[in-house]
């Protein structure tokens, strides 16, 4: 599942390079206005995946100013959070002798084992402090089944 973190960052950087400063400024100036059926989906912009987090994505913080620029243009904003239980099946610390980034077999197949991250209710699982999405209507939390990554 965390392969998507890399893809997400790549997508964010692609968005920045694709839009360029003109595109972002056009959003900021209201020249580009997504329709009422468009949604901005903000995926896992949580302390755990940001710089200094327990499963940090290198350069992860770079996505925040992009989101903050885009968000005011959208009527619909959805936010997701990785939201694991303590002792989660995807955590290496759950298994004696296992280290992060090794694998194990679970009922649904091979599971990469992660460092403990994004544990429900912790500061690590909180949305990034600099993130400004006050009009987000929906938060989707996943990874909360203790025995399944997501
Ligand atoms: Zn996770």
Descriptive overview:
This protein is of the alpha/beta class and 150 residues long. The chain has one domain: Rossmann fold (3-Layer(aba) Sandwich). The protein is built from two helices and five strands. It has helices at residues 3-28, 63-70, and strands at residues 39-43, 76-82, 103-106, 109-112, 138-142. The strands form two sheets. Strands 1-2-5 form a three-stranded parallel β-sheet, with no helix packed on it. It has a two-stranded antiparallel sheet with strand order 3-4. Strand 3 and strand 4 form a beta hairpin. The longest helix is centred in the first third of the chain and has 26 residues, at 3-28. The termini are close together. The site of zinc ion has 7 residues, from loops.
Throw out a few tags for this protein:
150 residues; alpha/beta; Rossmann fold; two-stranded antiparallel ribbon; 23% helix; elongated; binds zinc ion
Uncertain spans: none
Helix content: 10-25%
- Number of E-state strands: 5
The protein's oligomeric status is single chain
**What is the CATH topology assignment?**
Rossmann fold
Distance between the termini: 8 Å
Topology summary:
Layout: H1 3-28, E1 39-43, H2 63-70, E2 76-82, E3 103-106, E4 109-112, E5 138-142
Parallel strand pairs: 1-2, 2-5
Antiparallel strand pairs: 3-4
Helix pairs in contact: 1-2
Bound molecules: zinc ion.
Entry summary:
The chain is of the alpha/beta class and 150 residues long.
């Amino acid at each position: 599942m965390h392969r998507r973190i890399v893809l997400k960052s790549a997508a964010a950087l692609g968005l920045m390079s694709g839009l360029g400063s003109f595109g972002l400024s056009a959003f900021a100036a209201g020249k580009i206005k997504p329709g009422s059926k468009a949604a901005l989906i903000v995926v896992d912009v949580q302390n755990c995946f940001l710089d200094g987090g327990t499963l940090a994505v290198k350069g992860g913080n770079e996505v925040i100013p992009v989101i903050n620029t885009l968000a005011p243009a959208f009527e619909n904003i959805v936010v997701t959070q990785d939201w694991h239980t303590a002792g989660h099946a995807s955590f290496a610390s759950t298994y004696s002798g296992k280290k992060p980034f090794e694998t194990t077999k679970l009922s649904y197949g091979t599971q990469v084992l992660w460092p403990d991250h994004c544990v429900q209710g912790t500061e690590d699982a909180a949305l990034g402090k600099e993130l400004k999405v006050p009009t987000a209507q929906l938060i989707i939390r996943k990874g909360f089944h203790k025995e399944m990554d997501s």
